[in-house]
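// run 5 | inverse folding | seed 20
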């Protein structure tokens, strides 16, 4: 009798778990399973060491804003985002945020919260001389070294869907850590220490696939 009661309890538990799974999966899969989007961003350049009032005080200065291009891909609730921000300075620089994370529904089919992390890579294309990646000449580095030496950042986003378009806010907080640095003793301590940049991006996207 005890064994029969245990089996009945397990059966009820499985039914309840299945119902909860169905209820939770509905909001996650309300959108198409896969999409690709292209966006135009206004990117504010801040500093992660500043207090909130100091950080936002510079938003009224146009020199602190740059125009970037964003490419995003989503499969279910998994997001991949690349934000390229050109710099018109003397070095003709380009900052590339590459991130992976999750998109969680706040209001199904309208508002989604995104969280993730990635790396930030800096490129320099001078008018004369060799180009650089993360301060190194291209001829002196390779893809693995570039990835390992790029600072790690955290990304938080809030996106509003408007049919095939969306408007989003993304905050990139750069840490002092790199993938290579995490492999050294005490390297993990730098993961939550602020680096040199904190970028706030306002983006308008269009779904292209």
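// decoded
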């Amino acid at each position: 009798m005890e064994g029969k009661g245990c089996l009945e309890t397990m059966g009820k538990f499985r039914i309840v778990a299945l119902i909860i799974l169905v209820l939770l999966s509905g909001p996650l899969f309300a959108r198409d399973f896969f999409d690709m989007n292209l966006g135009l961003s206004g990117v504010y350049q801040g500093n992660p060491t500043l207090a909130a009032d100091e950080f936002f005080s510079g938003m009224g200065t146009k020199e602190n804003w740059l125009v970037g291009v964003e490419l995003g891909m989503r499969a279910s609730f998994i997001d991949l985002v690349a934000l390229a921000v050109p710099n018109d300075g003397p070095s003709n620089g380009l900052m590339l945020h590459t991130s992976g994370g999750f998109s969680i529904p706040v209001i199904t089919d309208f508002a989604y919260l995104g969280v993730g992390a990635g790396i930030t890579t800096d490129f320099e294309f001078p008018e004369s001389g060799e180009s650089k990646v993360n301060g190194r000449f291209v001829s002196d580095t390779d893809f693995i070294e570039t990835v390992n030496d790029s600072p790690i950042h955290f990304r938080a986003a809030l996106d509003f869907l408007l049919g095939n378009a969306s408007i989003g806010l993304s905050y990139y907080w750069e840490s002092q850590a790199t993938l290579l640095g995490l492999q050294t003793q005490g390297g993990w301590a730098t993961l939550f220490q602020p680096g040199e940049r904190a970028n706030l991006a306002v983006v308008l996207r269009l779904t292209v696939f």
